[in-house]
Specification:
The complex is a heterodimer of chains A (about 260) and B (about 70). Chain A has helices at about 5-10, 25-40, 75-85, 95-105, 105-115, 160-165, 180-190, 205-210, 215-225, 250-260; strands at about 45-50, 65-70, 90-95, 120-125, 125-130, 135, 170-175, 195-200, 225-230, 235, 240-245. Chain A is an alpha/beta fold and about 260 residues long. Chain A has a seven-stranded mixed sheet with strand order 2-1-3-4-8-7-11, sandwiched between helices. A two-stranded antiparallel sheet of chain A has the order 5-6. Chain A has a two-stranded parallel sheet with strand order 9-10. In chain A, helix 5 (about 105-115) packs across helix 6 (about 160-165). The longest helix of chain A has 16 residues, at about 25-40. With about 70 residues, chain B is α+β, with helices and mostly antiparallel strands. Chain B has two helices and four strands, in the order E-H-E-E-H-E. A two-stranded antiparallel ribbon of chain B has the order 1-4. Chain B has a two-stranded antiparallel sheet with strand order 2-3. In chain B, a hairpin with a 5-residue loop joins strand 2 and strand 3. The chains are: A alpha/beta (about 260), B alpha+beta (about 70). The interface between A and B is medium-sized, with 32 and 24 residues.
Chain lengths: ~260, ~70
């Protein structure tokens, strides 16, 4: 069993991190590092791609693997390029909700349609945290943010349902309260062929916390009480919702190249 | 042979968020009430003899500050 110190020395660089005290992003980083360690994947076989935002900082600069820190919302297109270029790599995209659904929502839908072998981890804190707490597509109806001081007039988007409809082959949702399950889910996602989408609902102690006067521990307690694996409970549904087999795009492209008489290195 | 448990908390990495204190089932950890150089009240070990090595604190720590070592 790896200890915390060994894990830190193996997978983390540039400590201390810039995350606020109690931020869920560090917890996701912890879970991801553990999943890679448990699977025994070498660090050189992983490429982590991120966009812009607090969540993008999870992999770049803090994860000690090859990383790409790309433009806002365009983490998935860059990751597709990496995957098609060398399909033996494990490509992980870590993106925030504003980055993944707000700015780059179109790319997410089409990556799911193509079903390319990526592991997309969307860290959902319900607002744009880095820029000051503006309303995001995932902000719940009636939630007060800095740009919706009278409550969000529109409805929040259920991203797990969106990617399910778009055709991702593995979809799951967990919160930072469920760290053990989340670690197992990342392990499964790294091994699963096709697009794996994991939504992680996290606390933002600085933006949500100050606005609603909630501490990190109160938010974690809220996740415990308001999530359920049973969709009929009327709570936030957590767990694996899709697990199916579909043709994977990078495989198909490589087969086409070979059948057309091309050679691969 | 009895286990020798050593819990190491990096004072400078700890941000004092209190997640480890909340998730410890045996209340091993507690607030120290002392500031580190970044201005955070770091966590310290209060009751080491109660530790059951569930490693919950390690798993939930956002800052990789806790390390539980067992020597047999």
């Amino acid at each position: 069993m790896i200890t915390g110190k060994e894990l830190r020395e193996k997978y983390i660089r540039n400590q201390p991190t810039a995350f606020c005290p109690g931020c869920g992003d560090g917890m996701v980083l912890n879970g991801m590092s553990r999943a890679v360690e448990n699977l025994g994947i070498e660090r050189k076989d992983i490429v982590a791609v991120s966009g812009i935002g607090c969540a993008a900082w999870v992999v770049s600069p803090y994860w000690r693997v090859d990383t790409l820190h790309t433009t806002h919302g365009r983490a998935i297109p860059h990751a597709i390029g990496v995957k098609v270029g060398n399909k033996d790599l494990n490509v992980v995209v870590v993106s925030g909700d504003g980055d993944c659904v707000g700015i780059g929502g179109n790319h997410l839908i089409h990556a799911c349609r193509n079903n390319i072998d990526l592991t997309v981890i969307m860290i959902n804190n319900g607002l744009y945290a880095m820029t000051g707490g503006q309303v995001a597509p995932t902000t719940e109806h009636g939630e007060k943010t800095i740009t919706t001081p009278y409550g969000n007039p529109s409805q929040g988007m259920d991203v797990a349902e969106l990617v399910k409809a778009a055709g991702a082959s593995h979809v799951a949702r967990w919160t930072t309260y469920h760290m053990r399950e989340l670690t197992k889910e990342v392990e499964y996602a790294l091994e699963k062929k096709g697009l794996s989408f994991i939504e992680v609902i996290t606390q933002c102690p600085t933006r949500t916390g100050k606005k609603d006067n909630l501490s990190t521990l109160e938010m974690l307690e809220w996740y415990k009480n308001n999530t359920s694996k049973n969709p009929e409970d009327g709570k936030i549904t957590v767990g694996r919702s899709v697990d199916k087999e579909r043709p994977e795009m990078a495989d198909v492209i490589y087969e086409q190249i070979i059948s057309a008489g091309g050679t691969l290195k | 042979m009895p286990q020798k448990i050593h819990i190491e908390i990096d004072r400078e990495l700890c941000t004092g968020c209190g997640i480890c204190i909340r998730f410890c089932p045996k209340d091993v950890l507690g607030e120290s009430g002392t500031l580190n150089q970044y201005g955070n009240f770091y966590t310290e070990v209060k009751k080491l003899e109660e530790c059951i090595v569930c490693r919950q604190c390690e798993l939930y720590c956002p800052d990789f500050a806790i390390s539980v070592e067992v020597k047999e």
